[in-house]
């Protein structure tokens, strides 16, 4: 699949810098979790990487500037699921998820059996089968979030950008979603970059984490290297202890 590299990226709004000097590399099939306190610039960084926000610096996929790729190829290369999506009216869940297959359709624009199989598989794995015929506007917040993620996953892009993908999901659906993303890394070699508010989920799923604070990289490394009580106290103004799950991954627990 694809290797993602970000070089000295800076972005913001109305001439106000939100992130600056961000550099990171995610190898093929890797998972980088972007963490940081509220207002650190996590979503801004992800939008800039996706090419949805003007920026300086470079975003490279397999050493090619992402912005230089033809639109259709770019859509097959990078998929992005926003934290707060703008959903079209009048579409069912199935029709909406099928939109993710658009970059792979032939000249006539008709989906084939393989496209429908991809969508059916995602609806099943994200517990959406029972909602397949429902209109998007009738869904709860968590159900809508799962539909948005299903559409992004249906793209089968080589790089997957997820902005707070577990927002609004209960712990069971959050784990199911992250398990699915992890499985796609193994099956397809998908490269993943996600912002995650839940530090324990970030520690248990991302191979490496990038701690963003005030728009700059405060630390980058394995979860064990970055998620320390001292670092979290400094960057989050939080009282926490770091426990260990059975697999050895960190569990971030607050202290009253």
UniProtKB/TrEMBL annotation:
GO terms for molecular function: ATP binding. Residues 4-239 form the ABC transporter domain. Keywords: ATP-binding, Nucleotide-binding, Translocase, Transport. InterPro entries: AAA+_ATPase (IPR003593), ABC_transporter-like_ATP-bd (IPR003439), ABC_transporter-like_CS (IPR017871), P-loop_NTPase (IPR027417). SMART domains: AAA (SM00382). This is ABC transporter ATP-binding protein. It comes from Saccharopolyspora mangrovi. The lineage of its organism: Bacteria, Bacillati, Actinomycetota, Actinomycetes, Pseudonocardiales.
